[in-house]
Design brief:
heterodimer, A: about 170 residues, B: about 1000 residues, alpha+beta, 43 helices
C-alpha cells in the first residue's frame, strides 16, 4: 500500500501532500522536513531509493524523482514493488505534463486543486488505480467538462499563473 | 470548482508565496483563518462558491502545516451539495482533512450511500474515492454490499468499476467479514476475465488483499493469474495506452506476480509449466538499456519475477541463473538496479542452495560499500552482514573496519554495531575480537556504544589467556596522540586490572602505566574520571614492592578529588584513599574483578564448550566476588582445619591464576609456614607473580580460608546461588578449584535459606546423597533447632562433620554428630541457640561428608536470623506515640532515606513486614502512604525491647522511601534498620549481606545493582 505522496520543491516547501493513513498535521510536517533533509543532500545520478524507516517507521520504503525544482516522493510498504512505484511517479508527472504542457512548479502551486483531482485518478486509497496517463487524462477531462457545465467561473490560464509568480 | 481558478484562492496563494519568512506566513495564514472562521459563522450569505473557495483555502493551509480543525464540518457539509463542483470539493477535501474515526463522517454516511447507489456516475466516483480513502468500519458495514454490486454489475463503466474494486479492498481491510468468502470467490475469478486493463489492475490489487488473508478460497484464481501473466508477457491484445515504454502494463505484471506469491504452491503441472515459461522469458529477455524509464519498468517486472522464482522454490538451475543475473546487476551502471540487485541478493541469501554462489560475488559487494550512493552502501552493508559466517568473517569485518574511517557519519553507528556483532559471533580467535573492537573504538569511538566496550571487557575478564594480550594492546593505543575517550576508558580499565600481568615488559611498570593514563585525565569528562580513579587504586595495589613516590602521587590525586562536586568521583576518591592506607588488606579489597556470568550467546556457548576450565574459573571468580560481599563477621580468622582439610591461605591474585591441587584435602598441615610451600610447590605460576614474595605478609595478616575442592556448590547453573547460599569468608581468598564438583546440590540453596528465614521448618540442603532438614522453635532470645541429616542412599555416608561457625552475637551448642550415617537413616542433631546481642550476622553450618571417593563440603547459612528473635506485638496508639516521642533521636531513633527499593504496593509491603514478625499497625499513621509497625526484640543483653518502625513511601516513586526505626538500644536500632533496609531493597532475589566493614565502592555498586545482567553489572561496577 502507498502510504503517502509528497511533492515538494527544492527548498523543502510542500506543494502537494496526500497521506493515505491518518497522520496528525504536525507529524506530517515533521516527516516532510525529514524527507527533505535527506533528499536535498543527495547527489545527482544516484539511485532513487532512500531509507525511510527512520522517518516513517518499520516496513516503509521511499522512492523519489527529482524534476527541475520539484521532488516527487512516494512512501509505501513492502507490498509494493519499488521500481513500479518509480514508474508510477513517472506516470503522474507525464500526466501533469499533458495537462499543463511542460508542467512547472507554478502550475502545481496555483492549480493544486486540480492536481488533487488528477492524483485521485491515479492513486486510490493507497492503491494504484490507473497507470495509463491517457486514461487519467480522459477522466480529468470529463471532470473539467462537468465543472464547465455547472458554469462556475473562468479558467485560470497558464499565462495568468505565470504572471502571478515572482 | 476544482480545476478552474478561484481568484480569491490564487490571491491567497500568491500572498503566502510572497511571504519572506515563516513568521510572515504565519501572520498571513492566521489572518486568512480568521476571515474564514467569521465567514463560516455568519451562515447567511455564504454562497456555495464561497464555501468551496474557503474549503480549498483550508486544504492549502493544512498542507502548509497548520491546523484547520474548525473547518472539518464545512468540508463534510459540502458533500451533500447538489451541484458537482461543490460536491467534488467536499469529497476531495474531506478525504484529505478528516480521519476515519471522525464523528462528522457518520453524518455524511447516508449522502455517500445515496451517491453510490445513484445513477450519476461522476457522483459514484467521488463517493467511492472518499470511502476508499477514509472509509472506516461503519462505512464498511453499511456500504460493502452496494460496492460489491457495482463491481459485478455489467452496466457499470470501467471508470466506476475500477474504483469500486479498490473501494471494496478498503472496506475489506476495515472489516474482512464484509466479503463473504464462499460467494465472492467465484465472482473474483470472473473479475479476472476482464479485458480492460484498468479494471484488471484494480481487481488484481483486490485479489492480493484477499489471498493475503486466505488463499485457500481463491485457488480458482490461480490459473487465471497465470493466463493474465502470459497475455502480458507475450504482449497479446494489449492496448497502446497500457504499454509503458514498450512494456505491457508493468504494474499489472508486478501485481499478478505478487498475487501468485501468496499461494504456497502450484500443484497443477500445466499451470506450473506455463508459469515457469513466462518467468524464464522475463528472466532472459530483460536487458539494461539506455532509457531510464524503460529500464525501471522492465526491471520492476524482472525483480518481481525473481521474487516469485524464489517463492516457488524453483530448481537449483533456475536459482543459480537468478543469482547470476543478480551478480550482473550489482555491477551495472544504473544505480537503481545496483540497489535492487543487492537488496534481492540479501533476500535470496535465505535460500541455502545458492549461498555459496552468492558468496562468489563478495568482492563486488565489498566494492559496493564504496558506492557514491548511501542507499546502495546501506544495502551492501546489509548483504555483507547477512552473508557473514565463520569462513569469511575476518575478511568482511576487516573490510567494514577499513570502510569505517571513510564512511559517512550517518552510517558509522550502524557500521560499528554490525562489525562488533559479527566479530563477536564469528570470531576465529578472541585476540582478533579484541583487535577489532579496539580498532572500532579507535576509528569511530563516538559511535561505539557502551555495550560494545563493556562486552570486550567481559571477554577479557573471562578469558585469562586474553588478558596480557589485551593489556598490551590497550597500552599501544594509549601511546597514540589523540584517542577517543571510550578508548581511555577501556584502556584504563584493562590496564588497571591486567596491566600487572606484563609488569616485566618494558613500558608496563606501574609507574609507566600510571603516567600514561594520568596524562589523559585532563582531557576526559567526568564520567571517565571514576574509572581512572579505580585504575589508580588498582595500580597502587599491584605495585609490589610499594613505590612511595607513586603512592604519594596517587594519594594526592585522591585527595584532590575528595572535594569533587561529582558524587561518584568524590566517593571513589574518599574511599580509595582510605582503603589504600590499609596496607596489605588493599590487596583483598581491590582484588581482580570476578568473571562475568555468561550471557546467552552463540559465541559464549562455544567458548564454554571448548574452554571448560575457563568456565569453571569464571564460576570461582564470581563466587569470590560474591563472598567478598558477605559480612566480615562470618570470618573466622582462626579456623581450625576440619575434615583433614588445611585452611589454605593464599593471595587471591595468585590463586586466581592457578589451579588448586586436588590432593590438598588430604594434607594435614597445621602450621601456616608449612602450608605455604605446598601451595607454591604445586602452583606452578605463583612464582612468576610479583605477589608471591609477599604471600607471607598477606597470610599472617588476615583471613584464612579454605573450601575443599569438591565442597562448594558451583554457581554456574545459577549465578544467584552463591549470593546467600555459600557463606564462607568475606575475603576473596578462595582457592581455585579446577576439579569438577562431583556433587551438585538439588534446588537453590539461597532460596531454601530465604524461605527458612520466614518459616521454622523445611529443607536446608539437599544433594543426591543427603538431605538436611531443619526444624526450629524460638522462644524469646533462645532457640532450639533440630537438624535432620538424612542419608538418601543404600551405602553409608562417612566422615560426617558438622561444625557451627557462630557469629559473635550467638551462642550455639550443637550436639554430637555421628561420624557415619547408615544407609537410609536419618539422624537428628539438636542445636541450641542463644541470642546475646542484636546483629544481622548469620551463623554458618560447615558440613562435610564423604560418599565413596567424593568429599563433599558445604557451608550453609543457618536461619537463626534477626527476625527469629522478634515477636509480634500489638500496642495502642497512645503507647506507640508515647514511646515514639520518648525515643527522640539518634542513636536510639534513626532515620534513613532508602533508594533503590523494590517497588511494592503498600499492602504487599505490609505483608512482608508481617512475615518478618513486624506487626503492622494500621490506622496509627493518618497518612495512607505510610506504614507503622512494631515488634518486641529479645536478646540476652537487651532483654525484651520494643521496636518501632515507620515507613513513609512516596506514591509517585515507589523505589524510594524514608524509614525511621526506634528502640531503646542503639545497636538494636541500627541493626534493625539495616535489616529492614536489606529486606526492602532485595526482596526476593537474595538475602544478602551488604559489606559492613571496609566496603569497596566497586562491590557496593554491584551490590545495589544486584543484577545478573552482565551489562548492568559492568555498568554498575564502573
Amino acid at each position: 500500500m502507498i502510504r503517502a505522496v509528497l511533492v515538494m520543491n527544492t527548498q523543502g516547501r510542500p506543494r502537494i501532500t496526500k497521506f493515505y493513513e491518518f497522520w496528525p498535521v504536525e507529524k506530517q510536517h515533521e516527516a516532510i522536513r525529514n524527507v527533505f533533509s535527506v533528499l536535498c543532500s543527495r547527489a545527482e545520478h544516484v539511485s532513487n531509493f532512500v531509507d525511510a524507516e527512520s522517518i516513517f517507521g518499520p516496513d516503509s520504503r521511499l522512492v523519489y524523482k527529482h524534476f527541475a525544482t520539484l521532488y516527487f516522493v512516494l512512501i509505501f510498504d513492502s507490498s509494493e514493488n519499488e521500481l513500479a512505484m518509480l514508474d508510477l511517479i513517472q506516470v503522474f508527472v507525464e500526466t501533469l505534463d499533458k495537462c499543463f504542457r511542460n508542467v512547472c512548479e507554478l502550475d502545481i502551486v496555483f492549480n493544486y486543486s486540480k492536481i488533487h483531482a488528477i492524483l485521485d485518478e491515479i492513486i486510490f486509497g493507497g492503491q494504484v488505480l490507473e497507470t495509463s496517463s491517457t486514461e487519467v487524462m480522459k477522466a480529468v477531462e470529463e471532470i473539467t467538462k462537468l465543472e464547465a457545465a455547472s458554469n462556475a467561473i473562468n479558467l485560470v490560464s497558464k499565462s495568468v499563473s505565470n504572471w502571478r509568480s515572482r | 470548482m476544482a480545476l478552474s481558478g478561484m481568484r480569491g484562492l490564487s490571491v491567497f496563494i500568491s500572498d503566502v508565496r510572497n511571504c519572506q519568512n515563516k513568521e510572515q506566513e504565519r501572520l498571513r495564514v492566521d489572518k486568512e483563518l480568521g476571515k474564514i472562521r467569521t465567514r463560516f459563522k455568519s451562515e447567511k450569505g455564504l454562497k456555495p462558491y464561497d464555501k468551496k473557495k474557503y474549503v480549498w483555502k483550508m486544504l492549502y493551509i493544512y498542507m502548509l502545516g497548520y491546523d484547520v480543525d474548525f473547518g472539518h464540518m464545512e468540508a463534510v457539509s459540502l458533500i451533500s451539495a447538489p451541484k458537482y463542483p461543490e460536491k467534488q470539493v467536499g469529497y476531495i477535501v474531506t478525504s484529505c482533512l478528516v480521519n476515519e474515526n471522525h464523528d462528522f463522517l457518520r453524518l455524511a454516511i447516508n449522502t455517500v450511500r445515496t451517491d453510490i447507489i445513484g445513477r450519476n456516475e461522476t457522483f459514484q466516483c467521488l463517493a467511492l474515492t472518499m470511502v476508499g480513502n477514509i472509509g472506516g468500519r461503519e462505512f464498511s458495514e453499511s456500504l460493502a454490499p452496494d460496492v460489491q454490486k457495482l463491481l459485478v454489475s455489467s452496466s457499470c463503466r470501467p471508470l466506476v468499476k475500477k474504483k469500486a474494486a479498490l473501494c471494496l479492498l478498503r472496506l475489506y481491510r476495515k472489516n474482512p467479514d464484509v466479503v463473504n468468502v464462499d460467494g465472492w470467490a467465484v465472482r473474483m475469478a470472473q473479475l479476472l476475465d476482464e479485458r480492460d486493463l484498468g479494471v484488471l489492475t484494480s481487481s488484481m490489487s483486490l485479489l492480493v488483499a484477499l489471498v493475503s488473508n486466505n488463499y485457500e478460497a481463491y485457488w480458482s484464481c490461480l490459473p487465471k493469474c497465470v493466463k493474465i501473466l502470459e497475455r502480458l508477457a507475450r504482449n497479446q491484445d494489449i492496448p497502446q495506452e497500457y504499454t509503458y515504454y514498450g512494456i505491457p502494463s508493468p504494474w499489472l505484471q508486478v501485481k499478478t506476480m505478487r498475487a501468485l506469491q501468496y499461494f504456497p504452491i502450484i500443484e497443477d503441472p500445466n499451470t506450473r509449466r506455463s508459469l515457469f515459461e513466462v518467468l524464464q522469458r522475463i528472466l532472459m529477455g530483460t536487458d539494461v538499456v539506455k532509457n531510464v524509464n524503460k529500464n525501471n519498468a522492465s526491471h520492476a517486472v524482472l525483480f518481481e519475477a525473481l521474487a516469485l522464482v524464489m517463492h516457488l522454490d524453483a530448481e537449483k538451475e533456475m536459482m543459480s541463473q537468478c543469482v547470476t543475473l543478480l551478480g550482473k546487476f550489482i555491477a551495472v551502471r544504473e544505480p537503481n538496479i545496483r540497489y535492487l540487485g543487492l537488496e534481492n541478493m540479501t533476500r535470496m541469501f535465505m535460500i541455502t542452495d545458492v549461498q555459496d554462489i552468492i558468496k562468489r560475488h563478495q568482492a563486488q559487494i565489498i566494492t559496493s560499500l564504496k558506492d557514491p550512493d548511501i542507499s546502495i552502501r546501506r544495502r551492501a552493508l546489509d548483504l555483507l552482514y547477512s552473508m557473514c559466517d565463520v569462513s569469511n568473517a575476518k575478511d568482511i569485518v576487516e573490510e567494514l573496519l577499513q570502510y569505517l574511517s571513510t564512511a559517512d557519519f550517518a552510517m558509522r553507528e550502524e557500521l560499528s554495531l554490525k562489525a562488533a556483532i559479527l566479530a563477536e559471533k564469528f570470531t576465529p580467535d578472541l585476540s582478533w575480537y579484541v583487535d577489532v573492537i579496539l580498532q572500532l573504538i579507535d576509528k569511530a569511538g563516538e559511535f561505539v556504544s557502551d555495550d560494545i566496550w563493556f562486552r570486550v571487557i567481559q571477554f577479557v575478564t573471562n578469558n585469562d589467556d586474553l588478558q596480557p594480550y589485551a593489556a598490551a594492546k590497550a597500552r599501544e593505543y594509549l601511546d597514540k596522540p589523540a584517542i577517543h575517550e571510550t578508548m581511555v576508558k577501556v584502556s584504563a580499565y584493562i590496564l588497571g586490572e591486567f596491566g600487572h600481568l606484563l609488569v616485566r615488559q618494558p613500558g608496563f611498570s606501574p609507574r609507566e602505566i600510571f603516567n600514561i593514563i594520568h596524562e589523559k585525565l585532563p582531557t576526559v569528562s567526568t564520567s571517565t574520571i571514576p574509572i581512572l580513579l579505580s585504575t589508580y587504586a588498582k595500580i597502587l595495589m599491584h605495585t609490589q614492592p610499594p613505590d612511595p613516590d607513586l603512592q604519594n602521587q596517587i594519594w594526592a590525586i585522591f585527595k584532590k578529588y575528595e572535594s569533587c562536586i561529582e558524587v561518584e568521583i568524590q566517593q571513589r576518591a574518599v574511599e580509595y584513599f582510605a582503603l589504600s592506607r590499609k596496607g596489605a588488606a588493599l590487596v583483598d579489597i581491590l582484588a581482580e574483578m570476578p568473571k562475568f556470568p555468561e550471557r546467552q550467546s552463540a559465541l559464549i556457548k562455544r567458548a564454554e564448550d571448548t574452554e571448560v576450565d575457563t568456565a569453571e574459573q569464571s564460576a570461582m571468580k564470581l563466587r569470590a566476588q560474591q563472598l567478598s560481599q558477605t559480612s566480615n563477621a562470618l570470618v573466622v580468622s582462626d579456623q581450625h582445619p576440619t575434615n583433614g582439610t588445611p585452611a589454605v591461605m593464599v593471595n587471591q591474585l595468585g590463586l586466581l591464576k592457578v589451579p588448586n591441587p586436588s590432593t590438598r584435602s588430604n594434607m594435614d598441615n597445621d602450621s601456616e609456614d608449612q602450608r605455604l610451600p605446598q601451595v607454591n610447590g604445586t602452583l606452578s605460576k605463583v612464582e612468576a607473580l610479583p605477589q608471591s614474595a609477599d604471600l607471607d605478609g598477606v597470610l599472617l595478616d588476615t583471613l584464612a580460608i579454605e573450601g575443599p575442592p569438591s565442597s562448594i556448590v558451583q554457581p554456574k547453573s545459577n549465578s544467584n546461588l552463591g549470593l546467600g547460599g555459600i557463606a564462607v569468608e568475606s575475603s576473596a581468598l578462595v582457592p581455585v578449584d579446577q576439579q569438577a564438583n562431583a556433587v551438585q546440590p538439588i534446588g537453590n540453596i539461597a532460596e531454601r535459606f530465604r524461605s527458612l528465614c520466614l518459616k521454622d521448618s523445611g529443607v536446608l540442603y539437599e544433594d543426591p546423597y543427603i538431605q538436611i532438614g531443619l526444624k526450629a522453635e524460638w522462644r524469646a532470645h533462645q532457640g532450639r533447632v533440630v537438624l535432620f541429616l538424612g542419608n538418601k542412599n543404600t551405602s553409608p555416608l562417612l566422615s560426617v562433620q558438622a561444625i557451627i561457625l557462630p557469629p559473635t552475637h550467638l551462642k550455639t551448642e550443637l550436639s554430637l554428630v555421628p561420624e557415619t550415617i547408615p544407609p537410609r537413616a536419618q539422624v537428628q542433631c539438636p542445636l541450641e541457640v542463644v541470642n546475646l546481642l542484636p546483629s544481622r550476622d548469620v551463623a554458618v553450618l560447615d558440613f562435610s561428608y564423604k560418599f565413596g571417593n567424593d568429599m563433599v563440603n558445604v557451608k550453609l547459612q543457618l536461619p537463626a536470623v534477626l527476625n527469629k528473635f522478634l515477636q509480634p506485638i500489638s500496642i495502642s496508639a497512645e503507647d506507640f506515640f508515647a514511646q515514639w516521642r520518648s525515643l527522640s533521636g539518634p542513636p536510639l531513633k534513626l532515620q534513613e532515606v532508602v533508594r533503590g527499593v523494590k517497588p511494592l504496593p503498600l499492602l504487599e509491603m505490609a505483608n512482608l513486614f508481617d512475615s518478618y514478625s513486624l506487626t503492622v499497625c494500621p490506622g496509627l499513621d493518618p497518612n495512607p502512604n505510610n506504614l507503622v509497625a512494631c515488634a518486641t526484640f529479645y536478646s540476652e543483653n537487651t532483654r525484651a525491647m520494643l521496636c518501632l518502625i515507620r515507613i513513609e513511601t512516596d506514591p509517585a516513586d515507589r523505589t524510594q522511601l524514608r524509614m525511621t526505626v526506634a528502640s531503646g538500644d542503639p545497636t538494636l536500632t541500627f541493626e534493625l534498620k539495616m535489616f529492614i533496609k536489606e529486606m526492602l531493597v532485595s526482596i526476593p532475589p537474595a538475602i544478602q549481606k551488604p559489606p559492613q566493614a571496609s566496603p569497596t565502592p566497586l562491590q557496593q555498586a554491584s551490590d545495589v545493582a544486584a543484577s545478573t545482567d552482565p551489562g548492568a553489572m559492568l555498568a554498575a561496577l564502573l
